[in-house]
Amino acid sequence: MPRDLPIGNGNILVAFDQDAILREFYFPYVGQENHTKGERFRFGVWVDGHFRWIPDGFTVERRYLDDTLVTDVLFRGMDLTIRVNALVDYEKNLYLQKITVENELERGREVRLFFAHDFHLYGNEIGDTAAFKPEQNCLLHYKDERYFLINIRANNKFGIDLFATGKKERELQGTWKDAEDGLLSGNPIAQGSVDSVAGIPLTLLPKGRESCFYWIAAGTNWKEVSLLDLFVRKKTPETIFQRTSNFWKLWATQEKLNPKLLPEKVLWLYKRSLLICRTQINNCGSIIAGNDSDAVDFNSDTYSYMWPRDGALVAYGLDLAGYDITRSFYQFCAKILTEEGYFLHKYTPSGALASSWHPWIKDKKPQLPIQEDETALVLWALWNHYKIFKDLELIKTLYNPFIRKMADFLMNYRDLKTGLPLPSFDLWEERQGILTFTVSAVFGGLMAAAHFAALFGESGLAEEYRQGAEEMRSAMDAHLYLEKERRFARMIRFHPDGSKEIDAALDASLYGIFAFGAYDANDERVKSTMDQIREKLWVKTDGGGLARYENDPYYRRGNEPNPWFIATLWMAQYAIAKANSLADLQSALEILEWVANRALPSGTLAEQIDPNTLEPLSISPLTWSHGSYIIAVQEYLNKRIEIEKCPSCNMPKFSKYL
After folding, report:
1. pLDDT(73) > 80
2. For residue 419, how many C-alpha atoms fall within 13 Å in the half-sphere facing its CB?
3. Does the global pTM surpass 0.90?
């Protein structure tokens, strides 16, 4: 089940399922320590003697308030309309909901709302405690250094009147069952595998409505969450709601794009992508690939890690958009770089080495278990960051211990006979060899290093890096371009006997040949390669979209492979890169609209979609999908402004920003 409506502040991430029920609660890092383990935090309604757990008997509409990270969810059922606006305070570690219940009948009614909390602190249920704390009339879940205080304001007063704690799992259904008669036992404490329920009684006039607030304060001890609870009481929930809504509106529109240059739905998804990317970025700088605990069922692991490649490409998009939040990403990368100058497979949100399936030995010989493109792309993206922000103070601190170290690794990790990089794992993490995508990324990384060296007056070093990049491109001409097929190979391997094994499969990642500067987009070899990718990998259903590569089996259900958003957007980037007129840009704009039409109603983009039903597959949201959309929109705008110039003065006709 895809995750939707992510909200957060860089310390907390909360996400919901397709029924708008809370399923993920990460703290103190986005992507690290999921305190729900993906279980449902049920939301129940009792009215007129009847009880239902949403969504039973309710319709659900899932959206955000415009330009914010505040949800706007409508539940309709039992002759009630319930609007839930949920947010995470932009500064404090507070998750807060405003709930408005509207009576659709011409008679008064008693309504009770029930919130069930299925915490698994630190990701497991062993040794948890759930308790009622009378001094603040609140519920508390705690274990070790993780505390979650739950409270409400309803009927013009603070505090919880209806509550229960109890046991769950191990052949027990859970305390949530206690709510189904509209009453709660008031059991004040339970330990072990526990859950809790809080109730809110409301009296609705005929055709009347009432609002209430519910919040969870997250912290590392009782004092911390108690002070957060007092902060809510003092500031008032209304003020917290308004200040966070205002903050995100300012954040999302700090660089206001000219609406005349983009269709409304493209501009809408662009702004939504900026906000969703922000929910996946830790305040420490790590950019997380995606947070959907249902992935465990398929992969026995999650996407809740930082891959330097994904992070670099998302950072590149945010840099293009003018959001220098990426500064902390590059500083984070500097901390996790190995002494030898490369990145390993992936990292936890806090920066520790994460799980991996890349071996340190092959054929009884040691090897580096790396995807070399990850190192190269961080270097490439950092140069683009400098070009945009001219942040010399940042670059000064990174030049010797980070930039040069990565560049020297890229120079040294080469086959001296061919000039190509030594084998590494591909970006899809499925094969090992010398990948055209990887070589293209290394070219871009070395050229970035040359620019940095020149910036610091090291002309000899700059020439060395530049020559290394040019040798690599020459090696691509000699070894990776297939004359007969008139396109680049996906991968090659050299064997000890001197023979060369060619993997000629068409792969969408071949877009890298132009994306990182190795070849001009109008080069005939690029054109032929990309045209064949479009012809062979475009999915043959009404839904369309581009598959990753030929016969891709990942999450595949039927005859056609699944289209990926990032792969499809790479075709847009290609159309933009080679465009010389507005007519040339039309196909890119059509892809931007194609993506917007296949996003969830909230604007969330998954990794891939079913080619027939268009439902999201794999994880949702995928940060890389949103980052790719930002990149494509920004590159489209830049090219359009470049093309549409006044013929007499050669000045742009339009400004990108208002």
Report:
1. yes
2. 17
3. yes
